[in-house]
Amino acid sequence: QVQLVESGGGLVQAGGSLRLSCVVSGSIFSINAMGWYRQAPGKQRELVATITDYGRTNYADSVKGRFTISRDNAKNTVYLQMNSLKPEDTAVYYCNAYSSHAGRDYWGQGTQVTVSS
Predict the structure, then answer these.
(1) What string of DSSP letters covers the chain?
(2) How far apart are the first and last CA of the chain?
(3) Residues 47-58: tens digit of each pLDDT
(4) Are 57 and 37 a contacting pair, CB within 8 Å?
(5) Are strands 77-82 and 18-26 parallel, antiparallel or unpaired?
(6) Residue-wise pLDDT tens digits, 31-46
(7) Of 117, 110, 89, which is closest to residue 13 (Cα–Cα)?
């Protein structure tokens, strides 16, 4: 099994920054790609950014140039640095891990990010 615990959400003014962290525990040897998704009220969950086990990154167009995903394999942690935040970034942010060995995704419980105008 794999457990993911997010932290770092909160309330910030537009233009501000936050850094989300996600600590992975359990059968971490089986984890390949990791990523962050978000879900705003009344909207579907959407991809924010992903990073593979060899460091290749992918971003949603809406966050390119503002958000940076990174991972520290020694700490079993993935980060999302969010700069120049906008009110439309307000959402619950979820950490995701994919295991090709298990053939499934794992999800954290989510952390709220609120950006005030």
Answers:
(1) -EEEEEE--EEEETT--EEEEEEEEESGGGEEEEEEEEE-TTS--EEEEEE-TT--EEE-TTTTTTEEEEEETTTTEEEEEE-S--GGG-EEEEEEEEETTTTEEEE---EEEEEE-
(2) 40
(3) 999 999 889 999
(4) no
(5) antiparallel
(6) 889 999 999 999 999 9
(7) 117
